[in-house]
Amino acid sequence: MKNITTGALQISALLFGIGLLGVIIRRNILIVLMSVELMLNAVNVMLIGFSRGYGEIAGQGMAFLIIALAAAEAAVGLAIVVAIFRTRKTLNVDEINLMKH
Amino acid sequence: MKDLQKNSSFRFLYGALSLGTCALVLFAPDIAWAKDVITDTGTAHLWAFRLFGVLTIIGAITTITRRNPVVAALCLVATLICTAGIYLMLHASFLAAIQVLVYAGAIMVLFIFVIMSVGPPEEQEFGVFRGTFSKILGVLAILALIVPLLRVLRSTDVINPKIVADNFGDVYGVGNLLFGDYLFPFEAISLLLLVAIVGAVVLTRRRKSAEKGAE
User: Fold this and answer.
1) What is the mean pLDDT of residues A10-27?
2) pTM for this one?
3) Chain B contact for A56, CB < 8 A?
4) Which terminus of chain B has a smaller tally of CB atoms within 10 A, N or C?
């Protein structure tokens, strides 16, 4: 780690990779949604790392908006999970593969 | 590793390390020997940053490998709090507070609500595409993606960090941005949150039967 911004970028890369791994490997849809949140956090860490590196506050503003957006996406995603669970009675992504009717 | 996770002293150590370092950073201006942690040029600063980074990565790997979704959600809460520690080290105190309040405090509570309401997951059989071989293939694919990226970051100088003021990234600075240059995205995101709220309510409505009509 040469400097703190490079360290933030390394952490961001690792977090994104781990989140992507969770999305690919896991079958429970709730864990998949949590891995998506991990990927969003990786982007946030990168933005704030660059904001610190360049002295620009805009990166932190973008990260703030991304946090708000992640809240909205988590709410709608979980509502979809609840609706799917009510009809299919399963949380396995391999079994949720038919459209309605 | 399984025994390590089941051992409660491991969890206590993880929690104590992450929360203790957060508390140390927050109260460092009043503790004489801890001022080095928040000074940009001090070595303790970089070590605290590395500690938060390592704890975040450990938390993330633990999150995606848990079988019980409640345990995974709590591990994600710990990961997000350690990410807030990373933000503290990067002169983003407002974002660190927002991360703990909104991300770890509201979004993850929503997750735990839904996990508790759908109940425990049923036993998962190994399908054709999700067995051990494909897990290994997935890990190799992600390594092929991430390792060159890390190698580039190690070899080149991405940027020399500028020296920033002590109050960089405080509430005043980010607030000035959000209500100044970024006013339109700020209002747009409030509209998006409204749409998300209405959408979540609509999606989880129970359909009344046809005779009674839709409400």
Assistant:
1) 94
2) 0.87
3) no
4) C
